[in-house]
Amino acid sequence: MVGVGKVHKPNKQVLKDIYLSFYYGAKIGVLGLNGAGKSTLLRIIAGEDKDFLGTIQSQKGITYGYLSQEPALDPEKTVKEIVEEGAQETVNLLKEYEAINAKFAEPDADFDKLLEKQGALQEKIEQMGAWDLDSKLEQAMDALRCPPGDTSVKV
């Protein structure tokens, strides 16, 4: 993160000249007074807020998840399904991989095409470290003190 800044209208500067870098696998905490820009900073890092000054550079293959302080939760979903939304790209890749595997059982399957697609997906999943997504989500849920994953979010 190089020289990042954010101005809310009308001319209220929330962030100014922020320079940050993180080591791979780092877990960070952001502390500050109310209105100091903590949530804004995290939304910028996660790519949720694109209207800022400065630049954000990430290594290839690095992704960020962001859970809003007051998320709009679907009452029909479980806690785990809501947490998975923060890793939706990874979840989608794993589902696509499972769908490809299921197609191998079809009698008219084009094995060459399926193997090619499966190989490309497998490589991407390995690069993302996504094979153990469930355990990573469980660790995150535990760290956030979430209720059990199968608990409904319905209040």
How would you describe this protein?
- This protein is an alpha+beta fold and 155 residues long.
- The chain folds into 2 domains: 2-55, no CATH class; 79-143.
- Helix content is 39%, strand content 11%.
- It has 5 helices and 3 strands.
- It has helices at 38-46, 79-84, 88-103, 111-128, 133-143, and strands at residues 2-8, 12-18, 53-55.
- It has a 3-stranded antiparallel β-sheet, with no helix packed on it.
- The longest helix has 18 residues, at 111-128.
- It is globular and about 65 Å long.
Topology (SSEs and partners):
Blueprint: E1 2-8, E2 12-18, H1 38-46, E3 53-55, H2 79-84, H3 88-103, H4 111-128, H5 133-143
Antiparallel strand pairs: 1-2, 1-3
Descriptive tags:
single chain, 155 residues, 2 domains, three-stranded antiparallel beta sheet, 5 helices, 11% strand
Q: State the end-to-end distance.
A: 38 Å
What structural class is derived from the secondary structure elements?
alpha+beta
Whole-number total of structural domains: 2
| Strand and helix order | EEHEHHHH
* Strand segment count: 3
Estimated helix fraction: 25-40%
**Envelope shape:** globular
Quick overview:
With 155 residues, the chain is of the alpha+beta class.
